[in-house]
Design brief:
This protein is about 10% helix and about 45% strand. The chain has about 260 residues and is mainly β. The radius of gyration is 29 Å and the shape is elongated.
């Protein structure tokens, strides 16, 4: 019973390397759309995705990477309106990129099919960074990942000019939709196998288990013990935690009586 408890503690005390997901998004298979409401009509436009890559640990939700949108590529099909947008609102010559940097993902991503998650991060636009949480749909299919992010940008509140005039009133926020596809979703271990110093030693295991083990009457001295009272070690047993190439721990094994 004691040996079983020790072995169980040894296995569960070893950290197992989790797998991170590292999609690289293809700008040619991605699109960025924006919608601005107005009194008389709704304006629709697009931007181009310059690049996109994220690194996501499903075990902890920690994320990094960036989605970079080319601010100078914004267009709505009306040259005069687009010129005013770039010159007076986005100031895209001065701030040529819009960047979203994910930091945390809330929710689970299924290995196949659709999942809903919430991505927390920083949105950098017009020279300032803003905390934002974006509802995101993730679709996995045969190793391909497609993400759809939809969120409002309160551009007036964030210091950009309101293009409204006396006769044309527009909303003070613009809705953004990013749909990006990664042709390959790379997975790799998020952390290397633990160093020997990280493993729980047998002596430490005994200290942990000792309070749980009921006391028993002293046993007669075993003639097979050496002069200092310690048992003679026999073969060593190797236990594997997780996959067989993840990490291992060695414990002494004593001869049977």
């Amino acid at each position: 019973m004691i040996r079983t408890t020790l072995l169980a503690l040894a296995v569960f005390s070893v950290p197992v390397a989790a797998q991170e997901i590292m999609p690289q998004f293809d700008p040619a298979q991605s699109r960025v759309e924006w919608t601005l409401g107005a009194v008389l009509h709704t304006v629709h436009g697009t931007f181009k995705l310059k690049r996109g890559a994220i690194r996501f640990d499903p075990a902890t939700g920690a994320a990094s990477g960036e989605f970079v949108v080319d601010a100078t590529s914004g267009e709505s099909g009306n040259g005069d309106r687009d010129s005013r947008m770039h010159k007076n609102i986005l100031e895209s010559r001065k701030y040529p990129e819009i960047v979203f940097r994910p930091r945390q993902v809330d929710g689970k991503v299924a290995p196949e099919g659709a999942s809903q998650v919430l991505i927390h991060g920083l949105l950098e636009i017009h020279g300032a960074a803003h905390e934002i949480a974006i509802p995101t749909q993730v679709r996995m299919s045969g190793g391909r990942m497609t993400v759809t992010l939809q969120f409002p940008v309160p551009y007036v509140k964030w210091g950009m000019n309101n293009p409204s005039t006396l006769f044309l009133r527009v909303d003070e926020k613009v809705d953004i939709k990013i749909e990006a596809t990664a042709s390959q979703c790379v997975r790799h271990a998020s952390s290397p196998p633990p160093h020997e110093s990280q493993l729980l030693k047998p002596t430490r295991l005994a200290q942990v288990v000792a309070p749980l083990v009921p006391s028993r009457a002293p046993r007669r001295r075993d003639p097979r013990r050496n002069g200092r009272g310690s048992p003679k070690p026999g073969r060593r047993r190797v236990l594997y935690a997780g996959s067989r190439d993840a990490c291992k721990i060695q414990l002494p094994s004593y001869p049977n009586k």
